[in-house]
Amino acid sequence: MGLLSLLRKLKRTEGEARILVLGLDNAGKTTVLKKLSDDDISTITPTQGFNIKSLNHDGFKLNVWDIGGQKAIRPYWRNYFEQTDAMVYVIDSADRKRIEETGLELADLLEEDKLSGVPVIVLANKQDLVTALSPDEVADGLNLYSIRDRPWQIQACSAKTGEGLQDGMEWLVKQVRPTKK
Amino acid sequence: MFGLMRNLYLHLQKKSAPRSFTIVFLGLDGSGKTTCVAALKGEPTEEATQTWGFSSEKVEVAQSSVEVYDLGGAKSIRRIWENYYAEVHGIVFVVDASDESRLPEVKAAFEEAVSHAYARGKPLLVCSNKQDLAKAASMTANDLRDYLDLDSLKCNHLCVDCSAAGKEGSTPDESFLEGMAWLVRTAGVQYASLQARVEEDVRVEKEKQEKKMEERRLRVEKLRQERLEQAKA
Lengths: 181, 233
Ligand SMILES: Nc1nc2c(ncn2[C@@H]2O[C@H](COP(=O)(O)OP(=O)(O)OP(=O)(O)O)[C@@H](O)[C@H]2O)c(=O)[nH]1
Ligand SMILES: Nc1nc2c(ncn2[C@@H]2O[C@H](COP(=O)(O)OP(=O)(O)OP(=O)(O)O)[C@@H](O)[C@H]2O)c(=O)[nH]1
Ligand SMILES: [Mg+2]
Ligand SMILES: [Mg+2]
Description:
- The complex is a heterodimer of chains A (181) and B (233).
- With 181 residues, chain A is of the alpha/beta class.
- Chain A has 5 helices and 6 strands.
- In chain A, helix 1 (3-10) packs across helix 5.
- The longest helix of chain A has 12 residues, at 99-110.
- Chain B is of the alpha/beta class and 233 residues long.
- Helix content of chain B is 42%, strand content 18%.
- Chain B has 6 helices and 6 strands; from the N terminus they run H-E-H-E-E-E-H-E-H-E-H-H.
- The chains are: A alpha/beta (181), B alpha/beta (233).
- The interface between A and B is medium-sized, with 29 and 26 residues.
- The structure holds guanosine-5'-triphosphate (2 copies) and magnesium ion (2 copies).
- The site of one guanosine-5'-triphosphate has 24 residues of chain B, from helix 2.
């Protein structure tokens, strides 16, 4: 498990990709990133700024940016849009009350020029909780089917158990076209 | 003088401008939709990741430019299909002919799709896929046409044997590509009426969507206010 084994499997040999991880506060963004890196996930606190995880394999470099999602810092998200190759949008699938709110934030992101055409994977996180929404309920809550200008994918997952994370990242890395930077 | 000619030329060119088509791929998970789309693009059929969403590709079929939509077919994502029917000029339904146990599920999903108001009557290609597998022998295109009772549908339809991913390094399956060409030509013959229908249905859907989003914004704003007040108290 882990991002590095994924990179090995995909045999990407050149270039660099920048992946942006966004979503509301408490969605589990930082936990996802730590779990993918096989780090300890028991002491995670809300992110005030951002975390970066960089991975190298055979000259291919993957940079993953995890940005804090609290309401007060969402206006700063736009500082990170430049040169994004793919976006991970994490939601707390058990937070039914905020599903529409997170949908509106995503809708705003999809209208950003700098993110136009950027493939997006929605991580329907916290599937280990019994109240978690199913993929089609998430697609509906986020109005994903109004998207035509980019590929999108939903991945049901749990950052707690790690289930689904690898599959989701595999889809995402496949969407990234090789670039020379 | 030259300016005028140029103008006329451009005008004529516009009139005969190639029409563009939108076609959606439907079918259960694992039936081979993504593999079919890769074959259309002329790409090697590497192992596809399961689709849990949407992607679109621009391809050329029968000298026309075609945008194909590839959707996820798993049970808990299938509900998204109906959101794409309004804008398509034709439908491809892919079936894994080697898996007899799922045929009832195939039939139910198929019937629900083709009876939808926005899908009904549109040109339809059914692919009896995975014919390279011995188990598919009992479900050839003819069998599938009967099983799905295609002849009872009021639309132009064709059912083809298909093997989207066969032996390694095999070229895209001929009968599938011919089926696609048939679909695009058939949609081309009815283009004027199909396009009028698409435009009208898309307009209606867009209005509905906008209304839905507006209501959503109001609800979210209300919830936010409530949370703020709770926090104060
Ligand atoms: N049950 C469960 N809890 C999870 C899961 N993923 C994250 N959590 C918990 O959710 C809480 C928030 O996780 P974070 O990773 O800090 O969330 P975040 O999206 O980074 O939040 P911000 O940094 O504030 O934007 C923590 O208590 C996590 O332990 C999961 O898959 N299942
Ligand atoms: N033997 C054989 N295998 C095939 C054929 N077409 C597709 N497959 C295999 O069937 C599996 C599923 O194919 P996909 O194209 O991913 O199926 P899909 O319809 O896109 O499935 P979802 O994305 O889950 O809806 C893959 O392992 C393909 O390689 C075929 O004609 N013959
Ligand atoms: Mg965080
Ligand atoms: Mg697929």
